[in-house]
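User: Please predict structures.

Assistant: First:
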Amino acid sequence: MARPRLVSDDGILDATRQVLAELGPVKLTLAAVGSRVGLAAPTLVQRFGSKRGLLLASAARSPVMVLRAAEEAEARNTSPLAILRDFALTAVAHIKHREELGNGLGFVQLDVADPEFREHALAHSAAIVDSCARLYRAAQDAGELRPDADVPALARHTLVCFNGALQVWAVNGWGSLSEFLSEQLDLMLAPYLAQE
């Protein structure tokens, strides 16, 4: 009979995200992740096969995390636009230093160069765009957003705004990331808000 796992895969993948933020994908080691959860590197190899396998598992989980974050934001708010703002800002609330974001952006190199990572990156982007589109349609129904707003285009624009704000802030560090992202979202949405 196999021994029960004392640390779940989700626990290991949460630790992987933390180590990625601190070290980036190049400097991340199985030992560094294992030390966070009290497991030896060979145990992680048994579960994930390799460092690459661990990083792929983390990337594969990313779209699920996006959908979970959207659901959690919906549970905290009633206004569709408030849900959208909460959804976006909660995603970056843990980031306090530009270096953390820079380390995370190192993952983009994998997304561009490696087809397996790119597949998960595309699913991550689709989860964001689909969640935003659903919230924008709800905002139109609630009278918060102009009825003539092009929802699919606006949802894609939101992804561009979000990712662009992260990269600009990583270099410039203007104020807190949450404040900077909030300002960019306000500027982007202003022309589409319903007139009172």
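Second:
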Amino acid sequence: MSAPVAVPAPATLGRVSDPTTYAQASKRLLRNSLLDGVHDLLTQRDWSKVTMTDVARQTGVSRQTVYNEFGSRHGLAQSYALRLVDEFTEVIGAAIDEVPGDLDAALTSGFERFFAAAALDPMIASLLSGEPNPDLHKLITTEAAPLIAAAKANLARIITRSWIGLPDVAADPLAGALARMALSYVAMPPEVPAPRVAENLAALFAPAIREAATTGSGLT
């Protein structure tokens, strides 16, 4: 049986280097505070019952400030989902860094942590078991391109800059396949225990990565 999967606390996920200007730092702080407010509200109610006014009240800003930042409720949901992409890919990257040289173990741990993090997020819980939310379903189906692009870019960076060290030309198609696979599991979580699914996915992707490392080319 696999050991329990450790998932970093939300406050440690998805952080990047500090912006270079005060205006950028203030904007980042505001956006993250608003998205944190959404997260907190979603632990109390379904996404269908979260309004822009609720987010403003939760964060201590005006309703207009929320609209200025995200444009619409749909824009708010998309921004929340894009932050999740950063958080989830950071979890995967950390798992890979912890077992240098062992590709199968790194991928298995990365997939396990991804499943564990996704299972804990309240927005995903609303998507899967809450009231019908057509806007959330659009985010991962007909309007999924921004999420896939962000996940692909993050995963390609991990594959090229970690000890895996694939060239860009090989990492790009592999990252794209991983991004689309991950999104499919958000929409429909595994029906069998996550550790087993993680092992199966590692067995599927590890040979492709090894082949890419040998030939210098990725999936076609």
